[in-house]
Design a protein that fits this description.
Length: 223
């Protein structure tokens, strides 16, 4: 006899990063964070801010699949204050994965935001709730609630592998996911990125007319 596939599969308890360590990255531009990871971690550019201009928190992942949000509802029930719900849909764009009711409950629980490679709905009410949301766009269509799906297990969202416990940083440039195991490394590099950017910006404002890297790529003179 073939057993029925369970509607949802749950991962182990989330290993959240130390609060003091995670907080050190708060407020850093997403572009600086991506640079600090060697140009990695940025989600697909099409995942843009739908509500709000920035998001920061600890990832709580779910894989909803196409045209379904049962996994997101289950993830929401496990969420803690400061979590960012990361809902993978495989880029499904014919129905929303979340609307005002789900997002309203998320705000009530202290969730820090929602990031999805799918769509959302009820834009006017989402804007009133003011919970940061990053998504591919908006549609009036609603999803099913049947599963299958996963909660708390690694997902791929916007072309990037994300695990629960990773740090999510987003601003108007887009979203970056920092793997939990790379957080210390990223923070160590971030100081150098900030210093280099500040130094070059000061020179630009003072009238710099050529970026330093150009000097190494000038055409050779003479035969």
């Amino acid at each position: 006899m073939i057993e029925e596939t369970p509607a949802l599969v749950f991962g182990p308890a989330i290993a959240r990063p130390p609060l003091a360590l995670g907080e050190k990255i708060r407020g850093a531009p997403a572009s600086f964070v991506a640079d600090a990871m060697g140009g990695s971690g940025a989600l697909d550019w099409r995942i843009r801010p739908i509500v709000g201009a920035s998001v920061f928190g600890v990832a709580l992942t779910c894989d909803c699949g196409a045209n379904d949000n049962l996994a997101l509802i289950a993830a929401l029930a496990q969420s803690e204050p400061g979590d960012v719900l990361v809902a993978a849909t495989g880029g499904f764009c014919r129905a929303a994965v979340a609307g005002d009711l789900l997002v309203g409950v998320a705000r009530n629980r202290g969730v820090a935001g929602l990031v999805t490679d799918g769509l959302v709905r009820d834009l006017a009410d989402l804007e009133a709730l003011a919970l940061p949301i990053y998504a591919l766009g908006v549609t009036p269509n609603s999803p099913g609630k049947r599963g299958p799906g996963t909660v708390g297990l690694p997902v791929v969202c916007g072309g990037v592998a994300i695990a629960s416990g990773d740090i999510i940083v987003g601003d108007r440039d887009g979203v970056v996911a920092v793997p939990r195991e790379r957080l210390a490394e990223t923070l160590a590099n971030l100081g150098g990125v900030k210093a280099a950017e500040a130094s070059l910006l000061e020179k630009v404002r003072a009238g710099l007319k050529e970026l330093p890297v150009a000097a190494a790529h000038r055409p050779k003179e003479g035969p």
